[in-house]
Design brief:
The protein is mostly helical. Helix content is 59%, strand content 0%. It has five helices and no strands. α1 runs parallel beside α3 and α2 packs parallel to α4. The protein is elongated, with a radius of gyration of 25 Å. The N and C termini lie far apart (75 Å). Belongs to the RAMP family.
């Protein structure tokens, strides 16, 4: 395997190659007795080292007016999510963790803070009559159920 000298030259296939040495075979993961899965700062550092540089370079190269269009950034964002997932798997960390949440919140705050949903994406509201009927039914059924239960007792 060729060793890359720059972090930004890494590809996801390189990362997969690096992670695959942790497993002797697919059935039985290799674990050292003294190995402790550090899913906090070390995981965050690895994400910052392997995943963030490629994402940052791609986002900075994207026109700022296009950063809010999913068609433009969807694949870049997807690669970032894939990279963080591969690292989590390789380090034995859960796919969803406070560390990963913190990382993505920072990504959104830095690169997507000016993005907003289009005005037509609000969920449609049910008719008022339907809401009143369903609410009234629930309010009436609770006391009736209580009376029936107490009556049997």
């Amino acid at each position: 395997m060729e060793v890359n000298t720059r972090c930004t030259d890494l590809t996801y296939s390189d990362l997969e190659d690096e992670i695959s040495y942790l497993y002797l075979d697919e059935e039985e993961p290799f674990e050292e007795e003294d190995q402790v899965n550090d899913c906090g700062d070390a995981y965050y550092d690895w994400i910052a080292l392997y995943c963030w540089p490629k994402f940052h370079a791609a986002i900075v190269a994207t026109d700022e007016s296009s950063r809010c269009l999913w068609e433009t950034v969807g694949s870049i964002y997807g690669e970032l999510a894939l990279c963080t997932g591969l690292l989590a798997e390789g380090m034995g960390c859960p796919m969803s963790s406070p560390t990963l949440d913190t990382f993505f919140v920072r990504i959104h705050a830095e690169y997507f803070a000016s993005c907003s949903l289009p005005p037509n994406t609000t969920a449609p509201q049910p008719p008022l009559g339907t809401v009143i009927i369903l609410t009234s039914l629930t309010v009436c059924l609770v006391p009736i159920s209580v009376v029936l239960v107490l009556r049997k007792a």
